[in-house]
Specification:
The protein has 320 residues and is of the alpha/beta class. It contains 9 helices and 14 strands. It is 35% helix and 17% strand. α5 packs across α6.
Length: 320
């Protein structure tokens, strides 16, 4: 049985930093609900489809935006996830730090895009603030974390341990992971203990190109994803971590559904529903850590599946 984590990073953006107070109400509707002429394809759609297939999603909710716009919109997001029976965990985008109505840190001016740009004491304060915001907005205590844009470092794990987090899922071997200070010699692809927490890295794979690719709905065809899941099961992997976003089923203009990605999402839900005897779709609450002693090589996907995905991606670009 392979543990599969369907993780969704939940974020709201105002598409720039000018006049954000005026832009926020419409941005919130667009990013969270995803209205289109064919219906809504945002967060509630994802929650509903997962529930219809009997699957548990892990929703890493970005909470620092509420230091600018108040707890009510964050509470609305938390309520949507909680009432659908899914798991709420913490996500932080530090671009919001200098936008807060009340200073989160001393002497912070301008943007710092990644959590790794902050000191250990600063990261400890920001993570504590983010977790408290989740609880104040109606969420239960969180025990897992993901840094915005995967921009973490080893200090992040120390800060998480200081805040009594058990799990982190910020390591991505395709971005920032190799130079995070965590396992600098060997890319992480399986769970490992580090600095008092357990790291559950993003699942990555070789697809015929030199660089790695991570398991994300917008980055993998359903043939690739299913093949990788079977390969992970057959090779005895402990965990398979998939990435998505609340707005990922929409096109770039966010005015209609991205039919190819919607189909990938629905195929994945159906596949995991049919094969629940092989794949345990779960969250981090009540999870017994399963660290490995040595890291295996990344998964691989055959070149013909890569070719089909490239064709699909071309179609997606043509309809954006």
């Amino acid at each position: 049985m392979l543990d599969v984590f369907l993780t969704v990073d939940v974020e709201v953006w105002c598409d720039g930093w000018n006049d954000i107070d005026a832009k926020f109400p419409s941005a919130f509707q667009r990013y969270i609900y995803g209205p289109t002429s064919r219906g809504d394809y945002g967060l509630p759609y994802q929650l509903h489809q997962l529930r219809e297939h009997g699957l548990t999603g892990v929703f890493f909710v970005e909470s620092l935006f509420s230091t600018r716009f108040g707890l009510e919109p964050l509470a609305e997001v938390i309520s949507l996830v909680r009432e659908s029976g899914h798991e709420i965990q913490l996500h932080l985008h530090t671009e919001w730090v200098d936008e807060s109505n009340e200073p989160l840190l001393d002497n912070i001016t301008g943007k710092k895009q990644f959590l790794r740009y902050f000191s250990l004491p600063e990261q400890t304060i920001l993570i504590r603030a983010g977790a408290q915001l989740i609880e104040l907005a109606g969420g239960r205590s969180v025990n897992a974390f993901r840094a915005g844009n995967f921009g973490f470092n080893r200090d992040t794990l120390r800060a998480l341990a200081a805040n009594r987090f058990v799990f982190d899922s910020s390591y991505n071997a395709t971005i920032f992971g190799p130079d995070s200070g965590v396992s600098p010699e060997v890319p992480l692809v399986e769970p490992v203990g580090c600095e008092g927490v357990y790291e559950y890295p993003m699942t990555v794979f070789h697809s015929g190109a030199r660089s790695l690719r991570h398991a994300q709905l917008t980055a993998c065809s359903h043939r690739e994803m299913e093949g990788l899941l079977w390969q992970a099961l057959e090779t005895g992997r402990k965990a398979f971590v998939i990435l998505s976003h609340n707005f990922e089923l929409l096109n770039d203009s966010m005015n209609r559904p991205d039919d190819i990605v919607v189909a990938r999402f629905l195929n994945l839900c159906s596949f995991l529903d049919r094969h629940r005897d092989c794949f345990r779709v779960r969250g981090f609450h009540d999870l017994t850590p399963a660290p490995v002693l040595s890291q295996p090589a990344p998964l691989t996907s055959p070149i013909w599946k890569t070719g089909l995905r490239i064709f699909e991606q071309g179609l997606r670009r043509g309809f954006r």
